[in-house]
Design brief:
- With about 220 residues, this protein is an all-alpha fold.
- The protein has a single domain, classed as Tetracycline Repressor, domain 2.
- Helix content is about 75%, strand content about 0%.
- Helix 8 packs antiparallel against helix 9.
């Protein structure tokens, strides 16, 4: 678990989240290229300079959260303590992020932001390509971590299939069209439930494929 952040940093994160939410909603409604920084500043009720200080490039408003999360997740898995499996380290990190991202003072839900990001990137081929590159990096990192846990080479079938299954699960639970039984977007807790099911599926495959490859 990471140490609690200070008040100043919390305020900074809230400001960034308010700006990003306003930008993503405008991007989703009017298009990424069509939306101006001035419109974002007005919607977020901040100055134009505040937007550019937190997000120097327009693309950062869509990609910064994912890029920062990717770096932190990669570190969490690669630096996991001895005896902690890669899939468990990933799940614990995501669970902590979901808990921290739900801030009543801002009213943000991490899964809601993920849906907005997914909607915007899918509508913009250039952004979608950059997200795909991040997905491939994460999948490669998971493949290596799972292979280490199994004592297999990274190019063995079991770790590659397990990592691909996990990534497919992540893409599914962050799909902007996915809703719960009430027809509304998934909450952070609901996302975690589905993610756990995806990890259970991947682990079941590992138990079979890992044994087969090690004995074969």
């Amino acid at each position: 678990m990471s140490p609690p952040i200070g008040l100043r940093e919390r305020k900074k994160q809230r400001t960034r989240r308010v700006i990003q939410r306003a930008a993503l909603q405008l991007f989703a409604e009017h298009g990424f290229r069509e939306t101006t920084i001035a419109q974002i500043a007005e919607a977020a009720d901040v100055s134009l300079r505040t937007v550019t200080v937190h997000f120097p490039a327009k693309e950062d408003l869509v990609l910064a959260l994912g890029s920062q999360s990717l770096e932190a997740l990669v570190h969490a898995v690669e630096a996991r303590p001895a005896g902690v499996l890669a899939l468990d380290a990933m799940r614990d990190w995501i669970a902590q992020q979901v808990e921290e991202a739900t801030d009543p003072a801002v009213g943000d839900d991490s899964s809601d932001l993920l849906r907005l990001i997914r909607t915007v990137t899918e509508a913009n081929p250039d952004l979608a390509m950059r997200v795909r590159g991040s997905d491939l990096r994460l999948e490669g990192m998971l493949t290596v971590g799972i292979a280490e846990d199994l004592g297999l080479a990274p190019d063995a079938l079991a770790p590659r299939l397990a990592a691909a299954a996990v990534m497919a699960g992540i893409r599914t639970v962050t799909n902007p069209l996915l809703t719960n039984e009430h027809g509304t977007g998934l909450s952070g807790d609901e996302v975690l439930v589905l993610l756990n099911k995806s990890l259970t599926f991947a682990r079941a495959g590992l138990e079979k494929l890992g044994t087969v490859e090690q004995s074969g």
